[in-house]
Input
Amino acid sequence: MSEQNARPAWMEDELVKDIPEAKLNFLNKIFHDANLRKQNLNAGNNQAAMLRVMMPVIKQAQAANLSFSPQELQAAIAAIRKYSTPEELEQIDKIYNQHMK
Output
């Protein structure tokens, strides 16, 4: 299977089995795009970069008529965390603490 067609492990996790495929694909695109952008950023500028990434993402979700219940977001975040590196976990925690609480 080519890398382009491979699904990340978190998308196969039992935690997200009830989330519609369109929503999982949307979340996967967000994380893929964020990772690509992160590779091109200074290490000290990640927070500002993430905000620049998230604003268009929110608009894309609205345009695609996608909304996520709190349960869907919690399940997706939990599944993503299971397959994340320590560095990714740190970033997830920063974003969550700043924007979700």
